[in-house]
Amino acid sequence: MKVTIKKWTGVATWKWVANDDNCGICRMAFDGCCPDCKLPGDDCPLVWGQCSHCFHMHCIVKWLQSQPVNQQCPMCRQEWKFNNK
Amino acid sequence: MCVVCHLFTNLKWFSQNLDIVDMTSSNHLDIKYQWDPSRDGDSAILTPTASVRIKRDLLEIFKDPPPGIYVVGDESDIRYVHAIIVGVMDTPYEGGFFYFLLKCPADYPILPPKVKFMTTDAGRVRFNPNLYKNGKVCLSILGTWTGPAWSPAQQISTVLLSIQSLMNEKPYYNEPGYDRERTPGDAKRYNEYLRHETLRVAVCGMLENECHLSIPPQLVEMMESTFLQFFDLYTETCRDNLRSDGEFYIDPFGGNTGCNFEYTKILERLETIRSNLQKKQNIPVSLPFTDGEGSDEKDV
């Protein structure tokens, strides 16, 4: 039997690779976006701290901006430093 | 060690008296009542994150309710949350209903909720060194006390659990500088006072709603069914303590307030409340709540 493919559509999925399912600040799924955004993906990225905790960038930035001194990770209270890996 | 304690006592004295100082400043309302959800004057609209987070916080409590903690969202304003903590067994608060009003700020969870303790007999009883008569709750995560501050990883249930842990077996020692009794027996006498006030204010007062608090009906229902379950415990405590009737007690932390022990009167109030509740339950009406009440009766 011979099969002729007339048309095909490729489907791909993507996933953030994070060590948790939800953002500890807004508690939304990492595969979704923060509540201030409409679409997940590059417009609502995830960021990691050196303590290895991970948040929506929009969420952690709001928290850090509210803390002029003593910027700590919301989860472990260690000093917050972005992990630029 | 001693120096540290005194420093804390002074700090607390200072923060209490700062209120009076603030009265003279022009915007004293804002500063004085910043902690107070019913008077802070904050009417800012919630961010999308805040309203989603409040719903999540409530949902998590509904899904996995912490023992002794009951929570209802406000029907007309999502920023407000009503909570009742039922006093834990083997503490002077056992079986009491302690009502708290929470208000989430516009940028919750960046800032903590504001909390007011409502079961104060209209501002007359300080139920704990950290629960003031005016309703202020002294807790570091609320920003009203020194210690570990709020973090956005915390939520409504963590606030309520922290308050529940303040209401422990020996709350006397919560007060800084009172890690040792001033006179032997002080901690026990303080407990006896709290036990009396729990029955008078947090059981009878709450069921009669003598202070006209607007408690959501779901929480009222919970109080009524819990009251009937705990009724024997309440009356037993009264009978065990009848001989202290007529004694006067001054709250070491409550300024010049205190109470006359009157367990006989409390016993009468408890009986009246029970017979009213039983009458209410026996009326065969088709209220939407009758199903719930039926199942409660089976549990008893």
TrEMBL record, chain A:
PANTHER family assigned: RING BOX
Name its species.
Cryptolaemus montrouzieri
Q: Which residues form the RING-type domain?
A: 34-77
Subunit notes for this chain? The mammalian APC/C is composed at least of 14 distinct subunits ANAPC1, ANAPC2, CDC27/APC3, ANAPC4, ANAPC5, CDC16/APC6, ANAPC7, CDC23/APC8, ANAPC10, ANAPC11, CDC26/APC12, ANAPC13, ANAPC15 and ANAPC16 that assemble into a complex of at least 19 chains with a combined molecular mass of around 1.2 MDa; APC/C interacts with FZR1 and FBXO5. Interacts with the cullin domain of ANAPC2. Interacts with UBE2D2.
**Protein name (record):** Anaphase-promoting complex subunit 11
User: What lineage does the source organism belong to?
Assistant: Eukaryota, Metazoa, Ecdysozoa, Arthropoda, Hexapoda
Family matches, as Pfam families: zf-ANAPC11 (PF12861)
Q: Which GO terms describe its molecular function?
A: zinc ion binding
Keywords of the record, alphabetical order, are: Cell cycle, Cell division, Metal-binding, Mitosis, Nucleus, Ubl conjugation pathway, Zinc, Zinc-finger
Q: Which family does it belong to?
A: Belongs to the RING-box family.
Query: GO CC terms for this protein?
Result: nucleus
Tell me which InterPro entries the record gives. Answer: RING-box_E3_Ubiquitin_Ligase, RING-H2_APC11, Znf_RING, Znf_RING/FYVE/PHD
For whether the record's keyword set contains Zinc-finger, the answer is yes
The metabolic or biological pathway listed in the UniProt record of this protein is:
Protein modification; protein ubiquitination
Q: Which SUPFAM superfamilies match?
A: RING/U-box
Cellular localisation: Nucleus
Q: Name one GO biological process term.
A: cell division
Automatic annotation (TrEMBL), chain B:
Q: Where in the cell is it found?
A: Cytoplasm; Nucleus
Q: Which UniProt keywords apply?
A: Apoptosis, ATP-binding, Cytoplasm, Nucleotide-binding, Nucleus, Transferase, Ubl conjugation pathway
As recorded in UniProt, its EC number(s) are 2.3.2.23
Q: Provide the UBC core domain boundaries.
A: 49-203
Official protein name in the record: Ubiquitin-conjugating enzyme E2 Z
Query: Which biological process, per GO, is one annotated for this protein?
Result: apoptotic process
- InterPro entries referenced in this protein's UniProt entry, alphabetically: UBC, UBQ-conjugating_enzyme/RWD
